[in-house]
Input
Amino acid sequence: MQTIERAITPRLLAALGDTPAVMLVGPRQAGKSTLVQGLAAGPHPAHYLSLDDLRTLDAAGRDPVGFIEDAEDPLVIDEIQRAPELLLPIKAAIDRDRRPGRFILTGSAQVMLLPKVSESLAGRIEVHTLWPFSQAEIEGVSGQIVELLLDGSSRPGVAPATPRRELIERIVRGGFPEAVAREPDRRDEWFAAYLTAIVQRDLRDLANIERLAEVPAVLASLASRVRAPLNKTEVSSSVGIPRTSLDRYLTLLEHVFLVRRLPAWHTSRVKQITKAPKLLLSDSALLAHLLRIDRRRLADDGSLLGAVLECFVGMELTKQISAARVRASLLHMRTATGAEIDFVIEGADGRVAGVEVKASATVRTEDFKHLATLRDRLGDERFVRGVVLYAGGERLPFGERLEAWPLATLWTAAGT
Output
């Protein structure tokens, strides 16, 4: 498989230019090692060490202070969550010498969420998240839909219609590099082995869980509810575990980036907004594997396709936000009366764009009903635009600041 340029690379290089340590986190097998090895061999020369190597891990555990003090500088440490005891010596090294770019760390678990780690490296480290390949990265283009959505004066470039067969293929291919490179009929085996490795290795390393065998059932139950706000009582009942156990499992699944919590957006201008988050699975092909669905079922079941497509688009937006030139947050909105907007993108300046997702090749005025309500409630200063992403190939106006855009806008070159 040819080398795919990662969209987040410019942000990493900028961070290495003014920050002593940079940490790249994300799901296992998302491409973190490949990316940092490329940086160390090219634009940011550094010595590379991986804690997946048992001898290196043993040396780090025996003498973490000496391990850091004796290592070449700059230094890349891959899979730092396997030896979190190295983080205090890294802090001490940075305090002695705050030159930028001294350390590049990667992690397949959220070690920065641990209080002692977060406190020790505060002000010394910048953290970035690398998700599996985006569709734009696979196509070799610069995905800029986030910038376009939050800039009311810009428009996307020409994008083709997406036939249902192509859309389904993109969904079941997902973005994990090894899965993308495999033959389609061999991907299920890869995902089965991937989940087993995470449960038996990463989760076991993070926490002492007596009943690890329950984790796949919890994950499958969450996967079947990706389109709705999270109902913990319903999930715990379906799996047959206490609510307290579910909370613990959910936190761990977030820590290893298998699920992503999508907070509820709220404002005083829209009443009775549900506060419950939604969950996204980190990869659409992983979601299809957990739901045990294939191309034929997605082609035959429009409702199922709609649910999986929503997760697919949510993760595409997540990936592009992680590399975007503008700071933005991805949220969802649902009111107690059932009014729902699939995704709300809010910029750091408070400006808002709403996004709805449709699997059909046509779009109707009623598809913009909730977007129009949000526009009218927020007014001109905050609401930039409302967009329905659909499978057609035309950009169509549906009222003031309301448009239909092709789904392919996610993976085609940006406009002006």
Notes: The radius of gyration is 22 Å. DSSP finds 18 helices and 13 strands in the chain.
